[in-house]
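Researcher: Next entry: MFS transporter (Salinisphaera japonica YTM-1).
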Amino acid sequence: MTNPLLLVMVLAAFTSVLNNSMVNVAIPAVSAHLHVSASASGWIVTAYSIVFATGVALYGRVSDSYSLRATFLAALVIFGIGSLACALAPTFGVLVAGRAVQAAGAAAIPSLAYGSVARLFPAGQRGAVFGTLSSAVGLGAAAGPLVAGIGVTAAGWRVLFYGTLAVIALLFAAAWRYLPDLNAERARSPHRFARLDLPGGLLLASGAAALLFGMTTANHSGLAAPQAWGALVAAVLLLTGFTIRIRRAAFPFVPPALFANTQFLSASGIALLSQGAFIGGGLFLTPLLLINQMGLTAFQTGLVIAPGAFSVALLSPTIGRLSDRFGPRAVLGTSLSILLAGLLFMSSFAVGAAPWRVAIALVIASTGYAGVTSPAANAASKALTAEIAGVGFGIYQLFFFLGSGTGAAVFGSVLALRQRQGTPALNPFYGQGTATAAFSDAYLVACIAVLVALMLLIGLGRARPVSMEKS
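Model: Predicted structure:
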């Protein structure tokens, strides 16, 4: 049963990432067709991101108390409804609403995929399986720009959502046939709804969404904007409420001991920081550098970025197996060092230079990033019993996702600040003049994030798995 399960989860992970990466590339065509400004078109991404952050932990907890198959099938239906709404959207508002519905379904995929691996595969095999999932994610990221370029050119942007809908239909049939009905006994328990701790889950989800919205708004409007600091204050209050709730609830959304587990916190922190540095730094800043500063077209930019994305897809399964053999900490130490080297090379020698140097820097950084995703997930799984694998990986994926969202906001703010100042680069090895010096500094900040991730390695391998203490 596990091999078909893995195929379903791999295809689901590929589809969710492909959907997002190709939509990002299609935004200019959507903006032109629906007559919206460049700034307003950002809601195509923002609406999806906020709802995704809200749902990713909730689905994990649901899968701990209810059937994995039923939860996954329901999420695919929601994902499909959102895709159809986007494909048929007559106005920009309907498109944004459709993207939010898409996210409400797609949020199930990462937590359910990784949680099911933690339940069904023994500890010595998880690294390889996590690597396969990471490979699907990398392949989706690499294929997205190419699929979008071909699809938009040949048939317009709506064809992208019709294509997603077709793949979702295939996924639904495969999931109906092959996904196991985990938690069947628990799903019939009279306490099944109470076990969800819906108030706790909503506090966590709302706090995460407020944090992401606040960081994104601060990037666009400045931290002094009322909607930015207001959202950040709300995030602090909501997350404080969540902390109080899980300490008092008879069936907490997640056991409080999980947030005291050094293994889980270190793995989640490494995921957050590396995701922020690579996605928020490498993949968010690089298109701005290549298109806005160096004058490349979107297609040329895709060619520069694609080799790095394919590196992630090709290397992830092998690195996952290495984390099973040598342990996550050893592989993570090497991989984070390579990621640091790639970002430092970008800051020092690639920014403002020929595009081939940028491609080399991205390949180096991508090689390191490929060695972080599956070993970090493998390390997090060691802190989770099967009983809380769903919610545990939901929260791990929340850290992972918030890394890319907050990373883009932080590095975008650094870029904007340094561009306003117009001073020479802080990196002493940078020698390309002041025109692109701000990009060099932004990549340098990404290097600092990786250095902090390296320090978190100290916390791996020192804690026992956590169970649902109050269940």
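Model: Note for the record: The mean pLDDT is 83.
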